[in-house]
Each structure stands twice: as structure tokens, then as C-alpha cells.
Design goal:
414 residues; alpha/beta; six-stranded parallel β-sheet; 39% helix
Length: 414
């Protein structure tokens, strides 16, 4: 029997945000295989004390203070307030050493000063995979192309633009020096990586999506799920989920608010359910036809929410491969989203959901209503949606692709 491939999954978090969840799920999925032994190196957190390697607690607290300081500066200047930015250039001591006898080091989302460019340079050459959960590894300080940026220029703005260019050059130098292989969860971010790096190097990159746990393919009757959650049985239900709620404008929650208002003015048989932090000054979501579940960390409870709804809406203006979309499809639920980014990988237009070309609340509301009035919410289509999801995002399907890549790297770079 061949020796198992050993992998360290390196991620700032494993229980916050989509990227951390994806890293955790990949680790668990690979360990179900006979070919791999995967462990996680992550931050110190009371909820993940059972994981393999945690950084020192004092370092976690130090990083959080530094990250908070940067956020205060950005918000005070009101220039990059609505765009996620990271540096990961600061050498923070007390980093637990990662053993150098692993076959592969798989980087994930490593921001908030968790794992800097300098730390990457300490890893063994030619054994690094970097999963692109967003565009930060292939850009400067931004995680996505900036939107909602003030056009006002001042010295602070110029400094950040210089830093953006400097950080990109440092990353590209590291990528070339360490011979890093990229994994792109979506075809869109693969092309973004090629466009960003092609002037300097030819990126080694392969498209492999994030796995969806087998739990989400479980059969649960829609009526039973609604009864358990005390949701209306006589209405069409639309589900929206975003951990950050309305704080991240890139997620398009503000467009959904307007779309809901538009729908409420024209029909009265649609009910909305939401997961995430939805606290707004005007309390826009305090309507009779909305149920807010807050943050949901239990996957089985989340499964019941998916099964209770008729469709899932993702109003993101740009996104990579949001797991709410792949989870929804695994549950057999159609997805309504803008025709952008990795959402094109999730939705087979008119077959597993609706892709909307215009980014407006009006078009969003029309897309939701079109989907609810189509055959996509019927049971026979639900089965087709689930079967397609099984082929693309199941643990078995994703494992095969990652293991094939790991074996290739181990063989070529030994």
C-alpha cells in the first residue's frame, strides 16, 4: 500500500467565514480518504481546541489588536471602509513552527496577520499549494477589485496605492521563488489569477471547487422542515444568507432590501428567511414576512433551513464560489444570483437557477419572482439540481481532484 500523502492546511480560522469553513471541510473530507493524512494549522480559538496545531494564544491576541488598529485607520479615513483589505507583511513573533516533513503545505485564507509573506518563505520550496478563496494572493492589499471607493485623493490614499503595488510585487516574488501551485475554486478566479500574474510569471493553476459535506445531500421533506422551524406552509419561501449581513456591501444585501420592498408591493404570498448578522439603523428587515435566524453554526440546522425554502438568493456584486450557493444546490434548491464571478459556476441558467444580467434591485426582484413561478421549485427539478451538485461538489468528487494534484506535486517535486 502506498504511503499516505501528508498535508498541512494553513488557515487563519476554521469556524468564521466561508474560507475558514472551506479549509476545515477539505481537511475532514481528505481524512476520509485512504490516500491522505491532513491536519490543520490555525489560530487559537476556544471552538477549535480539538484541531491539530494552534498558534500561541498571545499571538492571536496580538494579531487581533493590530488588525483592529488597521480597521480603525481605514474607517477614519473613509476611503477603503467598504472594501476588505489585508497586509500580512508584519513579522509577529511567537509563531509555532510547522514541521518540515510534510508532503504538501496548503495555504488558504491567511489574513489578519496570521501568516505573512515572510512565513510563507520559511516553508519548504516546491511543496506549497495556495487555494484562492478570494483575490488577495494574486493582488495587493485588496481581496476583490475595490468597489464603493471614494474618489477623493489625499496623501493617505496615495500611500495605500503605493503599498498595494509593493505588496503585489512581494507576493509575486514569493510565488515564483517557492514555485507555488494555485487551486482556483471557480473558473472566474482562475482567469483573475492568470490576468494578474501573467505579466510576471506563468501561474500553475487548476480549478478544484470547495467540497460540500455529505450531510447537505440528505433527504428532508420540505413540509416537515417548515413545521419544525415554525415557518408558513402556504407561502413560497426565499432564503438569503451572509455571515456579515449588510456590513459587506460586496454581498449586495442593500439591493435585496429594495427587492423585498418591491416584491411586497406586488405580491403577498412570498416569505423571506435570513441567516447572518442583520442589524440596521433603520431596521429595514423588521417586516411581517421576514424571519431572521441570526448566525447559524450547526450544519444540520442549516440543512433544515435550506430544505424549508423554495429558492436561495445570492445578491453578491462579485464573488468567488460562495458555499451558500453550492450547499443550496446540494439540497436541491435553485439559486437566483447576478451573472458575475464564480456564481456562473454554481448556476446553470434556467436549469438550476436564474442568472441576472443587470445589477439592480428591480432585476433582482423580477429574477426571484421568475424563479418562484417556474418549474425550478418543483420536486422533479430539485432532484436534477441535487444530482448535478453531487457530480461537481461532493466530497468524493473534490477529493479525487485534490489527491491527484497532491500526488502530482509530490512526484514532480521530490
Amino acid at each position: 500500500m502506498d504511503k499516505k500523502i501528508s498535508i498541512v492546511q494553513i488557515s487563519t480560522d476554521t469556524n468564521k467565514g466561508g474560507a475558514g469553513k472551506a479549509a476545515y471541510r477539505l481537511n475532514n473530507s481528505l481524512n476520509k480518504s485512504r490516500d491522505c493524512k491532513s491536519i490543520i494549522y490555525t489560530s487559537q480559538n476556544k471552538n477549535n481546541s480539538n484541531l491539530d496545531i494552534n498558534e500561541y494564544k498571545i499571538r492571536t491576541y496580538t494579531r487581533k489588536i493590530i488588525t483592529k488598529f488597521f480597521r480603525i485607520i481605514f474607517n477614519a479615513n473613509n476611503i477603503f471602509k467598504n472594501n476588505l483589505t489585508s497586509f500580512s507583511l508584519i513579522k509577529i513573533p511567537f509563531l509555532k513552527s510547522i514541521p518540515d516533513n510534510f508532503d504538501i503545505y496548503n495555504l488558504h485564507w491567511i489574513q489578519h496577520e496570521f501568516f505573512s509573506i515572510y512565513d510563507i518563505n520559511k516553508l519548504t520550496n516546491n511543496k506549497i499549494v495556495w487555494t484562492l478563496h478570494d483575490c488577495w494572493p494574486i493582488s495587493g492589499i485588496f481581496h476583490y477589485d475595490p468597489i464603493f471607493v471614494s474618489k477623493k485623493t489625499n496623501n493617505f490614499f496615495k500611500l495605500l496605492l503605493w503599498l498595494d503595488n509593493y505588496l503585489l510585487k512581494k507576493k509575486l516574488q514569493t510565488i515564483k521563488k517557492k514555485n507555488i501551485y494555485f487551486v482556483a475554486p471557480s473558473n472566474w478566479i482562475k482567469q483573475e489569477a492568470i490576468n494578474s500574474t501573467s505579466k510576471f510569471l506563468k501561474p500553475k493553476i487548476e480549478v478544484i471547487p470547495n467540497p460540500v459535506p455529505s450531510l447537505f445531500f440528505k433527504e428532508i421533506n420540505k413540509t416537515s422542515a417548515r413545521s419544525e422551524l415554525n415557518l408558513p406552509l402556504d407561502k413560497k419561501i426565499v432564503f438569503f444568507s451572509s455571515i456579515g449581513g449588510l456590513k459587506d456591501l460586496r454581498k449586495g444585501g442593500y439591493l435585496l432590501i429594495e427587492a423585498i420592498k418591491d416584491i411586497n408591493n406586488s405580491v403577498n404570498d412570498i416569505f423571506f428567511i435570513m441567516v447572518g448578522e442583520y442589524k440596521t439603523s433603520n431596521d429595514e428587515f423588521n417586516l411581517n414576512n421576514i424571519r431572521k435566524f441570526g448566525l447559524v453554526k450547526n450544519d444540520y440546522f442549516l440543512l433544515k433551513i435550506y430544505k424549508a425554502c423554495d429558492l436561495v438568493v445570492i445578491p453578491s456584486l462579485i464573488d468567488n464560489l460562495p458555499q451558500v450557493g453550492t450547499e443550496a444546490q446540494a439540497c436541491g434548491r435553485p439559486v437566483v444570483a447576478f451573472n458575475e464571478g464564480g456564481l456562473r459556476d454554481i448556476v446553470d441558467n434556467k436549469n438550476t437557477g436564474i442568472l441576472i444580467n443587470q445589477k439592480s434591485s428591480y432585476d433582482l426582484s423580477k429574477g426571484i419572482q421568475e424563479c418562484l413561478n417556474s418549474n425550478l421549485i418543483k420536486e422533479e427539478y430539485s432532484q436534477k439540481i441535487r444530482e448535478r451538485a453531487q457530480k461537481i461538489w461532493s466530497e468524493q468528487s473534490v477529493n479525487k481532484k485534490y489527491i491527484k494534484l497532491y500526488k502530482k506535486i509530490s512526484k514532480d517535486r521530490s
